Amino acid sequence: MRPGAVAEQSAEVADPRPRRWRVVPGRVRSGSAEKICLWVVALLTVLLPIAARLMPAGETEIVGVPFTAPGAGHLLGTDDQGRDVLSRVVIGLSASWWGAIAVIASGVVIGAVIGTVAGMSGRFVDTVLMRLTDAFLALPGPLVALLVVAALGPSFRNVLIAVIVTWWPWYARIVRGQVRVLRRLPHVDAARSAGFSTFRVVTRHVFPGVLRSVVVVASMDVGAVLLVLAGLSFVGLGAPPPAAEIGSMAAAGFTYVFSAPWVALAPAGVLFAVAMISNFAGDAVQERMG
Amino acid sequence: MGLLKQIASRVASMLGVLVVLTFAVYFIQRQLPSDPARVLAGRTASPEALAAAREQLGLDKPFLLEYFHYLGRLLHGDLGISVTSRNEVSSDIGTYLPATLELVVVAGVLALIGGLILGVIGARDGWLAGAVRFVSVAGASAPTFLVAILLLLVFYRDLGWLPAGGRGDALAASEPTGLRLIDNLVHLDGAALADTVNHLVLPALVLALSPAMAIGRVLRSSLRATMATDFVRSASAKGGSWPAVVWRHGLRNALGPALSIAGVQVSVMLGGSVIIEMLFSWPGLGNYLSDAIANSDLSAIAGVVIVLGFAYVLITFVVDTLQILIDPRLREPV
Amino acid sequence: MSDAVARIEKLVVQFDRSGTPFRALKGVSLDIAPGEIVALVGESGSGKTVLGNCLLGLVPGGHRTRITGRVEVGGTDMVGGPEKDKRRVRRNELGAVFQDPLTSLDPTMRVGKQVRERGATAQRALDALTECGVPEPGQRIRYWPHQLSGGLRQRVSIAGAITAADPGGVPSLIVADEPTTALDVRVQDQIIKLFARLRDDHGCSILLITHDLGVAAQIADRIVVMSEGEIREHGPTARVLREPQHAYTKKLLESRLDIAGPLPPASVVEAGEPVLTLSEVVKDFPAPHKRGEKRRVLHGVDVRLEAGESLVLVGESGCGKSTLLRIAAGLETPTGGRADVPPAAGRPQLIFQDARSSLTPWLSINSQLSERLAAAGVPRKDRPARVAELLGQVGLDARMAASRPRQLSGGQCQRAAIARALASSPGILLCDEPVSALDATLAAQVVDLLDDLRRSTGVSLLLVTHDLAVAKRIATRIAVMTDGRIVEEGPVEQIFASPAHPYTKQLLEASPSLAAVAS
User: Fold this and answer.
1) What is the rounded CA–CA span in Å between residue A155 and residue C285?
2) Residue A268 maps to which CATH number?
3) Strand, coil or helix: what is A78?
4) Which parts of chain B sit beneath pLDDT 50?
5) Domain containing C78: what range?
């Protein structure tokens, strides 16, 4: 899945099999690029809902004549029903952004649990859990998400569930890979030879190293998840109208694209801008770890 | 022996994934409030007809047996009946598949070429690499519908160079393959071929954009890592020029990660084709699917997911096998 | 010398390290005469590798690197000249061999093709492989690199380096950057001899870049000592080793651990209680790539370590010495046999080769030590004082307690790791190649630290190393291991004075030493 995911990365020369991330555990430092990335994500997470509150019009409020062109009255014009496009875009974006954060947070939690258990366990448990994860990864993500939403019925919550279903395996893979690398490092041997309990070894000498890199990786994925959510909403899988959603707004506006292009272009353009901010922050991180 | 054994194990895991896929699809279908037997028998069917339909669909058995029954039907090409078109889903898919296939294959080739160019240019130091890096992040952040709308506004509305949508049915031959590019070539019909290409350009470009960027960035970073290795330093020390060293040592070693990401991107393209087909009124599976979504036609949705899923799993298998061929360490252990 | 093969004049190389300029070379001048073997000796960060790369015309660091001065090979400017000329020189006049034979061959290209990459004939490649001592070259040219051992791969690299484009031609200069560092002692000795033979047969010059004066002493005509981007001293090998002029050279010579020379004053070890007994230890690992098959790495090994003694296990890579140590530490369970540590001796603590990664990267030195103290039952209020005391014991400033491992140098990391081990008040320190990743001057200090700790605290040492010189400095008893067995064991004096087993003799002969030249 992960269209345009910035995080796609693998350059292990010694091991040519697919490995998405070549993160050296413990080497992901709180350098400037990572800080920028995390700050951007945090800032947008806080600012978007505030911006949504401050919008001149409500989500479904009719404020004027349909198809008013962008101008002083309505910065991004009005849509086919006379609703303020700017307000709807910001409200929709704020919801999608929080949705993306929710998807990633759930993915990280599920992935961290499964990945850590697999990484620390013996061969059998590891094999079972990873085969399961790989099977999920081998399924065509967008199609599975589509099927899940279609089955559960279109709603924003169901879309989030569908994307989580296809998204967690990535994090499980990363966590498991990192745990397996970390547990073989001398500092873990040193901790084990001190006689510490397995729980202590994992929580204090393994997991913190995993957590850092996974949080950084995950924060870079927000842009990609936003695009997936918008794509599903565009196809008609999302909150039913009249809810403001980037994808469905673009789809609705597409009908009038040649006479009133702003109705479709505004949500698409704003989504592009936000995804790009998130992806550039991620790219900076990736360049350092590359 | 190494090679055959490796391929065999990959076939086995492919079959495993197919079982998971079909099981997931079946499981999701069965969770629904809607009753497939009622769909088959019709809204007004008598209880007896309903029971007969239930038996026909294998719904009267325990869940696992039901699943095997379902697998059996799948193997015979029976995907159920669409509520919207009242046709067999499999025959609907047969009608729409060639259009989607043509779109995805052309876009796939474009994405590979584009990714290769971006990756190789981006791997070398200098301003051009910086530009490539900027373009790929921007390209990866652009929603498909934004790109499609912009291209339509420019090339259709303003310049009038390219059509707004469709496949250009008027002129085209659709025999023998249903893939217009090939059919028109076979018939040596220049005008129809040009028309087909005109209709194909925009959707294929838009569909190829994001995968090309993803392939490009992975290739770029793995090529950079490869070009920093000792064996590349060694090859340069033997007097190889940058392009020669990239060609002989760099690409071969860097291609693995790019290939696996290309495999993943196939799934992105299959998903993206749904949006593209809606935007460009492309008469393919995506449009069929979006109609099915609008009508909650679950058999049709499941059918399309199964068919595209099979295609994806197959392509992943091919990509994996290619990697064994590229890397001797995977096929000839010490 | 107007007929120099290579000439470096006032070379300055300045890198851009994220905005800060860093001078790797600060005005270096050097001539290499035809047929001369020049050893460029320096510790890590001295700029010796940068110099080698400049000779090859491979300027590191990309377009932000600034270079002044001249580098000429065969009259061609290798830093400022046109790329085309540089490539011609590389094809015809130069050969390069790098440190790590595992990474210096392209894993996706057959061996033969790599040897004749510069356009030599297949026959020429065969000859070169034969000359470099690759057995059965006719078959080996069809091998992939990963199917060869480290030593063979390095021979293949050298074969590639001497196979110039010109048919039958051998380059006039071979740049060998630490070509033997990653190899076992005996293989290292063979490769060094191979370089000497190549020079004798073809009259090519060799620039041998190494950190080890002992390797330089084996074959170099001239030694150039570098540190911090400057040449400190240069002259004929015997002169530099016998009468070093520069203080830095003297320091290098003094700190170098060498198998020659007198044994350090023996410490009287009273036959004490055994603190570790390994009896008939057998260990199997699953064979890679072969399901169900086993590979036996230890074939019934007996080790008895007594209180206060220092037993050194000497062996080459893959002999099972590290596995034995991990079994002693309780990190691996033996397939057969027993490992006994009497409860009174406490848990054995490990010291690792890679000191930095043996410390948890995200925890401060203080928390890593305190954690151990807590486990050992030291009350919370006493811990800070105890941490300071431990750091003092290993020669670290108490203020370093607040540091994280990445803020410390390699030597400091190893000291911190030793302090952490001591925090668990062990009866035994198990040391796995504790100094082989350190520069010579630091290595000697850390070895002496371990020795002092043993003498002052009575902790027993079980140390594994590939380096007999380390063993000589610290051991009371030596055990020689090969192929998962201990083949010879005895007091340190006996092993060095009258080695009994042929393998021990081979190791002693192959160990690079200054003795040959410096006496």
Assistant:
1) 53
2) 1.10.3720.10
3) strand
4) 1
5) 1-93+173-256
